[in-house]
């Protein structure tokens, strides 16, 4: 089973109250990325260490109990792809 992790432990996250968007600064590259709520929460799960997609989804289902579970699972899949494409997330070996 593939586990995903953040590429750097030095990422700097900023979440703004009342908004659905957050930013993350990557000091390795100097890039700043705009994150939607699910991407931000996915990163927050991974701050504590690598996790499988199923573990991330379970965490999100606990966090967003009022939302549609199928929608959350699809949103997590999309967030993982966006984070991988941005260079913030990658697969890690067991």
UniProtKB/TrEMBL annotation:
What superkingdom does the record give?
Bacteria
Could you identify this protein by its name? PqqD family protein of HPr-rel-A system
Task: Report the InterPro entries cross-referenced here.
Answer: PqqD-rel_X (IPR027599)
């Amino acid at each position: 089973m593939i586990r995903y992790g953040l590429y750097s432990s030095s990422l700097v996250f900023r979440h703004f109250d009342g908004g659905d968007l957050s930013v993350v600064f990557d000091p390795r590259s100097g890039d700043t990325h705009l994150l939607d709520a699910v991407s931000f929460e996915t990163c927050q799960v991974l701050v504590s260490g690598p996790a499988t997609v199923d573990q991330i989804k379970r965490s999100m289902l606990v966090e967003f109990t009022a939302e549609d579970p199928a929608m959350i699972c699809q949103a997590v899949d999309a967030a993982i792809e966006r984070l991988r494409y941005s260079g913030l997330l990658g697969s890690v070996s067991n």
